[in-house]
Design a protein that fits this description.
By secondary structure, this protein is an alpha/beta fold. It has two domains: about 80 residues, Winged helix-like DNA-binding domain superfamily/Winged helix DNA-binding domain (Arc Repressor Mutant, subunit A, Orthogonal Bundle); about 120 residues, 3-Layer(aba) Sandwich (Rossmann fold), CATH 3.40.50.720. About 50% of the residues lie in helices and about 15% in strands. The protein has a six-stranded mixed β-sheet, with helices on both faces. A two-stranded antiparallel ribbon has the order 1-2. The protein starts with 9 loop residues before the first helix and ends with a helix. About 30% of the residues are buried.
Length: about 220
Amino acid sequence: MAEPKTAPPASATETEITLGLLNAVHDNSAVTQRSVARELGIALGLANAYLKRCVKKGLIKVRQVPPNRYAYYLTPQGFAEKSRLTAEYLSYSFTFFRRARSQCEELFADCAEHGRRRVALAGASELAEIATLVAREFDIDLVAVLDGDQAGGAFHGVPVLPRDAALPPVDAVIVTDLAQAQRTFDALSRRLPNTPILAPKMLRVARDAAEEAAE
């Protein structure tokens, strides 16, 4: 069975946003685009686009209520789609966790075998979260997580550094960036030519891309 090109795929994010929108409307017909955007953690324009798409598909019905406000309701088709997306999302979440855990175990086992005990992660994500759990089983010391958005804080107890920050001494770096895995891998390969840069197979990172870019 072929591995997906990225994880999570764009379709998974779309499923999550659509499902979140349908759930929000089901819970409260007086929901607003702004409250949906805040609840789902997305831009207001994106919330508006998804709402219009759901209305166009017949999943949500809109009624104007005074003064100049709107009420949103799930249609029978919307209820059916909400149930379908719930099952799809749960199935994806389980499959992603199982694949990510297995591949992180392979990487950390390889690190342990080669004496690479001090490891950094590149990208604060669901994949990185799973990696932090697996690392403990192999007595791997996670020294840092590189991530621009959460720099200065901690990710499951691991310090988060800016992507271009100077790393403490490490034996390897594992790419856990789900959004831009190849770009992150290429940048690290150029920046740390003497440090093994590893990536789970599910990210479909091409090693020769970094080599070609350096030529």
